[in-house]
Amino acid sequence: MPDQKEKKYLKPLPHIDEETRPWWEALQRHELYIQKCRACGELRFHPRAQCTECLSPRTEWVRCSGRGKIYTFTTTYQNPLPGFRESLPYIMAWVELDEGVKMLTNVVECRPEEVKIGMPVEVVYEDVTPQVTLANFRPAR
């Protein structure tokens, strides 16, 4: 019988493939990585097989600081879908990492009225299943 405190994760889970596997494996270790093109040096998120600047397939993964700032955000107050309605209200944001790339993510541990564009944030990891860990962000401490 499952532990009474154990909650089932109801939101959709990502499809993990060869292109994104290193990203998800790093998150499981509670590490944040982005891709860097070995040909032109461009940093990118989300994971792709080719550089979006020069189309080179030569990619390496670089560890990020996990710090950034809110580029823009929205707060959702209504969503009837299972998993989402239990999280209301929730904050979705584009976070600009200190390394310069932007990530679409959730802002957690923060009331909606406290979020501001330019607010410093830091990564926090949410282990949602044994295979999937998500990178969310909270106000920097």
Strand order in the largest sheet: 6-5-4-7-8
Mean pLDDT: 93
CATH architecture: Beta Barrel
Count of helices? 1
Global morphology: globular
**CATH fold assignment:** OB fold (Dihydrolipoamide Acetyltransferase, E2P)
Helix content: under 10%
The end-to-end distance, rounded to whole angstroms, is 38 Å
Number of strands: 8
The largest sheet is: 5 strands, antiparallel
Number of domains: 1
**Helix vs. strand class:** mainly beta
Rg: 16 Å
Strand content: 35-45%
Regarding quaternary structure, what we see is single chain
Which residues sit in consecutive blocks of at least 5 with pLDDT less than 50?
A: none
SSE string, helix = H, strand = E?
Answer: HEEEEEEEE
Which CATH class is shown?
Answer: Mainly Beta
